[in-house]
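Quick question about two entries, pasted in order.
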Amino acid sequence: MPRVLGVHIPDEKKIEIALTYVYGIGKTLSKEILKQANIPLDKKAKDLTQDELNKIKEVVETNYLVEGDLKRDVMMNVKRLKDINTWRGQRHSKKLPVRGQTTRVNSRTVRGNKRTTVGSGRKAAPSPK
């Protein structure tokens, strides 16, 4: 398995798709990187030479934020929002949806999968003796 920026990328996939296993690289950015490194898009990851891997690594390190640096940058942006007490920062702090979604019914993914159901609120009638 070739390693790019500390991430194992799958052997059997085309390098265009395999690069998307790196956090911060999507399909469009992957195409851009391969174009800059002069590597064909349809080449398999296992067929890459060490020189081609070094070209990819060099292009990514000089031009893009990926993996740990990108995660740290995103984390610092969220922390800044919390510190200046913006609306979005408050939503992040309360672990609620940040981008305007309604929370009355569907916000399970942010709040966690809370499936607490309550009946109609009425107690059952006492059984006759």
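Here is the second entry:
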Amino acid sequence: MKQCIIITGYIEGSISKIYPEIITATPEDSAFSNTSPVVLCADGGYRLAQNEDIVPHVIIGDFDTFDGMDDDTPNAGQIIRVPVEKDDTDTMLCIKYGLEQGCDSFVMIGGIGGRLDHTFANLQALAYLASRGVNATMKDEETCVTLLTPGTHTLHRSEYRRFSLFSYSPACEGLSVHGAKYELEQGRLEYTFPLGVSNEFKNDTVDISFTEGMLLVIMNHQR
């Protein structure tokens, strides 16, 4: 499994606390080895990485909110500039770059909160990956978000206490939830009603299965 870590332009919390497993790399390291993840910054995410002495392999963006970025910027790795007027967000460009490098697991650090339209765009980016069978999560210090496709999945409590389930398609059919405070057997979630909000772990793991649709999972800390 080859992992891609994307540092977004908006992060609530510390990168190293959100994802302690992040491997800092120098621009001279190979971004395409099988032993270390590809670390990308989406535009202004580089500022946030720089604050924690994290050196990305590649920075991708139009730099419309980032003055002073040039090819001689210290510890910047490779810089890929794109036009301001484009169809893809900077984060989506990072996702496509990671896919081109053969990555099959993605962690987006941040991307939750701030501008609502940016958060929703990032949710759609997760859906883009999920629809292609690629495992992806989006995390900050409070929240972990993922999108699931039909099948059987396990949520791990870890430090999380609460989780919510939402249909990210017109409906999720045949939904079963076991190991939670509120369990469900062969139920249905629709995207016009928030039936699955604020559930809790009863056990260390929660098993989820469903037969149709796309399921948005949001886990929160105990705070």
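Reply: The CA atoms of residues 187 and 205 lie 20 Å apart. The longest helix spans residues 116-130. Hope that helps.
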